[in-house]
């Protein structure tokens, strides 16, 4: 099995007892740390009206991280395109690509990244803009490309930067779109595992080569929490499980400190729902993690793995990424 690139998804999570400013400082420190460990990309995701997630102004945060790193690609995982017009995103990412040449990625999703009431505030009369997603992706490619220099409406900056575009997805619909456009495909298996295997199969079978990509390219995002022992990793993972429990019960809260056991924290039904969301969560010590990641990569034949780690203590989070990198560079 060949070594594959490994990358980072940072949701800019806000931790109980910390401020949003602390979150941003920790994101910079994590990006610098993982860059030194050989991680290829560092992506941030657009979310709104979520007290535990501070990446709502995604392009600004991308610029902030890019300014304080040197070689790692920084990008979006993703920008929720229906929340914006293609021209605005072309200008924003064209600016980023001009400031940080050949280091910016533009992952695109069609979901609002929030609840319906907030989506209405964001989109206004464009509330149903997700239906325009396929043609808006093409329009965005055009604005960022080389062929619009005589157009009435131009993205300046942006035109000619050809920022790499990815299609993000958590369903089979996105797989068909990524395949038909010949774009790389990133799947959100870290929270929506149900259609992962079906979606990447659809993408590969239906892929049409394009000017930007000759063969299908699949990136899978997964949860990884590792430590010196299986027991310590399981303890650290209680923060993640409580976070997902809040999603299941609609009682969302900031990332909480780890606890010794989840016993008494959830009902059997809630536990099953959380564990289903965590189908592709890799929680354990180094030896267990090595075998599990090897099996996952070998069976799915993914081209790149992206890791997200909801860990309460910043030092434990850095250590988890260190262990994961040591495994992935030696698989």
UniProtKB/TrEMBL annotation:
InterPro entries: Bact_Lucif_Oxidored, CmoO-like, Luciferase-like_dom, Luciferase-like_sf. Residues 19-259 form the Luciferase-like domain. It comes from the Bacteria. SUPFAM superfamilies: Bacterial luciferase-like (SSF51679). Signal peptide: none annotated. To bacterial alkanal monooxygenase alpha and beta chains. PANTHER family: LUCIFERASE-LIKE MONOOXYGENASE. This is LLM class flavin-dependent oxidoreductase.
């Amino acid at each position: 099995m060949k070594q594959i690139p490994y990358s980072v998804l940072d949701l800019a999570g806000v931790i109980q007892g910390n401020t949003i400013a602390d979150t941003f400082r920790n994101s910079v420190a994590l990006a610098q740390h993982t860059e030194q460990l050989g991680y290829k990309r560092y992506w941030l995701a657009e979310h709104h009206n979520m007290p535990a997630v501070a990446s709502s102004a995604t392009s600004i945060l991308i610029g902030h991280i890019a300014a304080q790193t040197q070689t790692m690609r920084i990008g979006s995982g993703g920008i929720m395109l229906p929340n914006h017009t293609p021209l605005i995103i072309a200008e924003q990412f064209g600016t980023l690509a001009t400031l940080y040449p050949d280091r910016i990625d533009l992952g695109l999703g069609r979901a609002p990244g929030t609840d319906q009431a907030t989506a209405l505030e964001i989109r206004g009369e464009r509330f149903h803009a997700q239906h325009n997603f396929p043609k808006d992706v093409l329009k965005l490619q055009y604005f960022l490309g080389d062929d619009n220099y005589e157009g009435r409406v131009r993205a300046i900056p942006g035109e000619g930067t050809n920022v790499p575009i990815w299609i993000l997805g958590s369903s089979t619909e996105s797989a068909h779109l990524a395949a038909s456009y010949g774009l790389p495909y990133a799947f959100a298996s870290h929270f929506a595992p149900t259609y992962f295997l079906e979606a990447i199969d659809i993408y590969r079978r239906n892929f049409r080569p394009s000017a930007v990509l000759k063969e299908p390219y699949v990136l899978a995002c997964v949860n990884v929490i590792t430590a010196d022992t299986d027991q310590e990793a399981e303890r650290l993972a209680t923060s993640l499980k409580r976070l997902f429990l809040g999603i299941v019960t609609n009682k969302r809260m900031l990332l909480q400190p780890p606890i010794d056991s989840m016993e008494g924290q959830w009902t059997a039904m809630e536990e099953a729902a959380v564990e289903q969301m965590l189908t592709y969560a890799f929680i354990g010590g180094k030896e267990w993690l090595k075998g599990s990641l090897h099996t996952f990569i070998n069976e799915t034949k993914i081209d790149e793995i992206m890791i997200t780690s909801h860990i309460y203590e910043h030092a434990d989070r850095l250590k988890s990424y260190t262990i994961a990198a040591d495994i992935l560079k030696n698989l």
